[in-house]
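Shipment paperwork, digital attachment
Item: protein structure file
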Amino acid sequence: MGAGHPLTLKWLGIDTYQEAVIYLHRDCEVCRSEGFEAQARVRVEAAGGQIVATLNVVDSDILAPCEAGLSVVAWRQLRVADGDTVRVSAEPPLDSLVALRGKIYGRRLDAAAMRAIVDDIAAGRYANIYLAAFVAACAGGRLDVDETVALTRAMVDAGQRLDWGRAPIADKHCVGGLPGNRTTPIVVAIATAAGLTMPKTSSRAITSPAGTADTMETMAPVELDLPAIRRVVEREGGCVVWGGAVGLSPADDMLIRVERPLGLDSEGQLVASVLSKKVAAGATHALIDIPVGPTAKVRSPQAAALLMTLLEHVAATLGLSTRIVLSDGAQPVGRGVGPALEARDVLAVLRREAGAPADLAERALMLSGALLEFCGAAAEGTGIATARGLLDSGRAWRKFLAIADAQGGFREPPRAAHVRVVDAPCAGRVGAIDNRLVSRIAKLAGAPRDAAAGLELFVKVGDRVDAGAPLYALHAESPGELDYAFDYVAAHPETVVVLPA
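Attachment content:
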């Protein structure tokens, strides 16, 4: 190890989510000699490597002056054990913060400034407060087209990049905002059954109750390294894995950790996030689904047109072929909202069960058909029929099982310990289902942290219901979470609106 003050590590078991934090006693030699104060950024070196961490100062006897504690994520990053020695030293000031401050005051970021910021983010040099400042400074349409291109390119260059040595390499993405819209595992199964190569790297939830990686993880392992991903794809033609485990766009993974609690997913950063992951994964053809609806992420045809134009322009600049699909985002898709509940819907469609949600099946077939035609695996106008044949014959289900087995083994999704049903207040017709409220309730019930938690819908817009008929059910792992979510339900009857007969 290099220079710095040696300290003995003590396990504290403090979870700070994904922020690396080091804990030092106020009388520690490091704090006294360096003049460190709480929230200072310091370099921490161990035999297994080095990280940049945020300093928290301790006044109690939980730590001796000669000891140091680390947050759980920092402990894992350094691969240390209780009693190991670490060295702590000052971290030099970040020049890229000058550019960030300029952006906060309305100045544009040129390509060099954007690259400097992204490189520092990817290297873990930005504390959460800096990450939050960058996200906020770029939100609300504050990134122009050139800045979005620069951000996307910098994100790609900051991480690893896959090259499959052939084309087409297919990918598919939904911009989100539509609960239960878990078509990706079905599309991957159909596309690879048709002979396409589709190495799908997916995100965990940002502002939603479940991401594709969260849902897939209830059925098979998703935290594969790059050699494992290559083995799966060479063996089965595709995969569905968590992109954050392989560092394909590490700066994006850092930004996601603050976008989630802030509830922000701005247009420019959305485009950069989506496209950087596609390019880094080696995709040549990406199908992008934009659901449009009054309570979806994209709420109007005008907003959808602007997003589509930006996606197509940035993708073309980076050499990625795209096909955009504008879809109905008026209400949730399928029945389940939450990782395991959505996985059960996916399995019902792939297994061709009699009660499988028809809207999820038809949406997945529409997207699969478009992808097959886009990548030349089906003639124009025949994609949906080809996809339906692969689903109905069982070939897609067998391919999904093979992919899950190659990733580490298939398993059935878990079920929640506690369920409570919400009934219709009167007889009538379902007039509206609010996507945002459905997502909010599912998260309050524990999703995606608790894989089995979430919300299960029993109705669709237009359905007729009797008084007291079940509208939806809350699923939770503890009675307290169930009660907490139900209190929110009671205060928001507009979640599912029943128009009296």
